[in-house]
Amino acid sequence: MAMLFDGKRALVTGAGKGFGRAIAKKLAECGAETFALSRTQADLDSLKLEVPTINILNVDLLDWDKTREEVSKIGHIDLLVNNAGVSKKSSFINTPKENIDMMFDVNFKGTFNVSQVIAKKMIDSGKGGSIVNLSSTMSEKALTNGCVYSTTKSAVDMLTKCMALELGPHNIRVNAINPTVVWTDLTLQYKDELMPLLALTPMGRFPEIEDVVNAVVFLLGDQSGMISGECLRLDGGLGVH
């Protein structure tokens, strides 16, 4: 069944590359008035060339106040995808404070900040909405040289559940997608640490970006209307171990 979002307004963070770019393009294709947020203007410019109907928003989520200001300007949003994420590879014992701050500021606080602004608008409109947070299977699996990243994703999982609890009475659904390894610029830096997971994956392959897009679109749509507070593993059965 084709997903249609005609008449809906969508916001995707981290929409310049990878998952976010593909999700933003898909939502626009499905009829949503789509806003693509990224810290990199060049990525937004090339996205705009590919999809002229997309609205672009150049914001760095590290700037809490500027993010709130710019996101507030776009008005009511029906569908929010918190995709933006960063990672810095380092061992626990050698991780400096600035790496911890940066990853928590984007991965957790950025998700919290944007969601807070958008959820308030959803409540005020009385129309409800759907929010999907991009997490990771690493929220449950320890990864060498990925201590802080994994911890931020564990925080996103719990935030998803807390948001679902508090926003449910306003007809706002909140879910997370937890993909295993999907090769992007972010994950390639951990290739040596991640490749052993392939042998543990019953389906014998890692997902593609399209698999992530399809799962996000499903959770945003009416067909998943009674699903909220879930952290959906997208891992080919890896999590059964």
UniProtKB/TrEMBL annotation:
SUPFAM superfamilies: NAD(P)-binding Rossmann-fold domains. Keywords: NADP, Oxidoreductase. Its EC number is 1.1.1.10. The keyword NADP applies. Belongs to the short-chain dehydrogenases/reductases (SDR) family. Homotetramer. This is L-xylulose reductase.
